[in-house]
Amino acid sequence: MKFENVGGARIVEALTAGIYDGNSNCIREYVQNAVDSKSNLIEIEHSNEGQDIRIRDFGDGMDKKELYNALQFGYSKKSQTEIGWRGIGIYSAVPNFRRIHINTKKKGSNTKYHVTILCDEIRKVYLENSSLEEILEKGVSGEIEEIEDEAFKNGTEVILNNVEISQKKFFQEKELKNELIKVLPLPLAEGSLKSRIKAILEQEKVFEPDFKIKYNGEELNRPPIDYDLFDPESLSYGTLSANDKTKLCVFWALTSKANKELTGLHRGIIFKKKNFTIGDSSTVRRLFDGSYSYWNYGEIHILDPDIRENSARNNFEINSGHAEKLFQMVRDLIEDIQRNNRKKSAKDKSKEIEKLKEAISKSDFRSAESKLKKIESSLERKVKGAENQSLVPYSDKLEQKAEEQVKEVKSISTKLSEKKQDKNEQSYREALNALPLEKRKIIEKKIEDPANYTIFTHLMQNVERSLRKKTGSTETEFYKLMEDIFQIEQGYNYEKVKSNAKLFLVDPNFISTGDSKNMGKKYPYRITGEFGHFLNELYELFVNGEKHHRKELHEAFTQNMTKKEQVEFYDDILHAIYLSEKIIAASKKRSEIGSLP
Amino acid sequence: MRILLVEPDYYSMYPPLGLMKLASFHRSYGDDIEYVRGISQVKIEPSIINITSLFTYSWKQVHQSIEYYHNKFPGAEIRVGGIYATLLPMNIKKQYPFVKLHLGLHPKAESYLPAYDILKRVDKWKDWDRSIVFTSRGCIRKCQFCVVPKVEGGMRDEKPSILDLMHPNHKKVTIWDNNFLASPYAKSMLRELIDHGIEADFNQGLDARLMDEETAGLLADVKSKSIHMAYDWPWEGPYIKKAIDLLGDAGYKKKNLIFYMLYNFWDRDHKKGDTPDDFLLRLKNLMRWGASVYPMRFIPLDSLTRTGYVSPLWTAEKLEMIADARRVLGFAGTWVPYRALADKFIFSETFEQAMELRPMKKDVPVPLVS
Lengths: 597, 370
Known about the structure:
The complex is a heterodimer.
Chain A: H1 11-18, H2 25-36, E1 41-47, E2 52-57, H3 64-71, E3 97-105, E4 111-118, H4 119-127, H5 132-139, E5 145-148, E6 155-163, H6 173-183, H7 194-203, E7 212-215, E8 218-219, E9 236-241, E10 247-255, E11 268-273, E12 276-278, H8 281-285, E13 296-302, H9 321-347, H10 350-361, H11 365-380, H12 392-433, H13 437-448, H14 455-471, H15 475-486, H16 494-500, H17 529-547, H18 550-558, H19 563-586, H20 590-593
Helix pairs in contact in A: 4-5, 9-12, 10-11, 10-12, 11-12, 12-19, 13-19, 14-19, 15-17
Chain B: E1 2-7, H1 17-28, E2 32-37, E3 48-51, H2 59-72, E4 77-80, H3 83-87, H4 89-95, E5 100-101, E6 130-133, H5 148-151, E7 172-175, H6 186-195, E8 199-201, H7 213-221, E9 227-230, H8 237-249, E10 257-263, E11 266-267, E12 272-273, H9 276-289, E13 292-297, H10 316-329, H11 339-346, H12 351-355
Helix pairs in contact in B: 6-7, 7-8, 8-9, 9-11
């Protein structure tokens, strides 16, 4: 086909930003043209195992002249009130597919027009720096064909044929569906909040599209698809206006019910213009520098026709004071929304309260207590909410919710301590009564009057006495001997105890079979980890314990224990002391051992 | 428009590539298409019926399809294309004057990616998972027995990439080039196959005379079950030996090199042809060199039967001996050089001895049933 004087000033921009966008946005371009052709049904179909995508409308269709003009780069007779007004739409899929076939038929006519665009030819010549006319003559090498075809219904059919391998992933059946739902002009999905959102938008004359879009036969709707994800009370809305009172946009936003980031189709707030999406959720998010958690889904519908999207429709042209003003206001809006998110995070503890109740019902008091503490401190915290008039109501609602929750938590707290008390007393008595009388007396005294009864001063004296009897040493000699045994000059150090305590030889011929570094090494003084701990504890009791924390140490141990657990703990210690006495009584004197390695 | 695509139900190992391309072509015009094999129920009321054809000797099923669909849809235009229609157009035209014939390739549909999805509608092909590609048309050789120089002519339309011609979901490819190695892009395409792990089937046979060390190395690295080449004349021996050795050295299993071996060919113009002794010589050579043999009986390009033609240098009995030996000694018609079979061929002094099958013992006692 012959091309002359094609295009205008928009070409360069279109070539660089528009057609080299590299993803499924191109489908949006064809749908835009279909919308402009006043079709009440647009079908998108995935065929030949995802190789081809077909976009079909049943609108006005084109005659030969109109088709020829559509193929002229950057030429469009459409006014800016229509959607696809740049005249490059027909070439949108050039980067993604090998061919684009167009079939079109005017209403009332019997003639179908067909033309094929060879995308790979365009890409090849484009790289060679050819003139635009040369590019198009290679790309649309055939003429427009006229075919008498009764079976073909009026309207236009675009067939994107043979997806490029590198682009395949963007055009998979499911991925494409989600992408289409994100970008196309669709009615709101049915659900609890639909009528309210619809009314908010209609008040500003933003109406639902008057056409249907089907994807592989299924009618598409726009999110929120799952209204249950959101706190129904969180629906906030309003308009933003410039200084000269021009209304720039109308917005609405929802907050996630769970204090959790939203994913997929419900993630973030998006710009819409004439029901088409401009950019994606990151376009709005990027306006705001601070941290923002994607807890919201919402729409900002542009009302001011002077705020225009760029040709790739991934952002706006900053060509007017109004666009600047809009960005500034949206930035503040997002900041405010995030303030409410933070407030919700602190003040909406319904999920945590559920978990707390569950823990109590399972008698898991320890975890219930820590949960309770966290909830209480969060609810007490002062958090500043949103300042924007449209968002203040939700902020107030969160405050109310918090007050209700504080009450609820208080009653739970009382209940918890009562339950705990009951359970502790009962099981403590049971555990104590199970012990022999002698032990019971000692332990009960210790637990009931911990400050005045030092269990170890009393009990360890027995061990000390048996050791002194065995070694025949005086008290001073005994402590000297302990230091000698553990070979520690100053203070307490578990590592030193472990490596220096030659007296407690376990296996003089131990050879490591462990990792390659130590393999085959001989460790004549190896002491097992558990035995090392035991030594450490003995040293602690005999040498250090006297000096300071014989009392404090065990108070520190026992403060988080229930009484029943304290009984068990002290019972274990008594048992250990009893065993120590036995070991000492049965052990040999140093003189009897002879020389050591 | 509504288009019916018909593949007559003749024997074939490959799905109808031309019809698949026509399906894509018609779809690009927004037409409704339906594909059937043989005589079948049709859902649409077609305005055009495209019937394909294959070898000349499978003419009968083509005629059946023409008659059936013409009777069923008398208003529809019937177009017949494919190999048989191209080689013997008058055969169809005389009998069915209403048929529009399409000779040779469809200039527009040829460049379309075949619509593999239509195969799902036919039981025979529903599990088909390989792409079929032509990376070139025509051939650099002009062998007298071959249809290619007559139908496609010299080497042309060489494509630089196989991947571009494949369905992106396919991991296997059947290459239908008449002479793949003669393409200037052969080596880069082999690298492409290696890089993407694609299993290739060089179904039409590679030109052993174009084998060099680099090509052999690449071929050995491409995933393939076997490599087909041809050994048609005794004078090609040294080239064949070299090709086998190169591929063997590159690590390819020699028994997976399968050589098409033409026999029963008679060149009417030059009064020349192969003989049973030629056949035996080539067979012995290939067995010695460790490669497999797939005998290919010559059928004249316009033959309406598969077995009718006998070269003046052959006899029907001798041709039958080869057929029997293939059935009994071959795997799917291929003689694989296992020791015993190779020795049998190599140590035979005559053609008859080589093809001889051990006679059935007639005096085997019948077991008594008590």
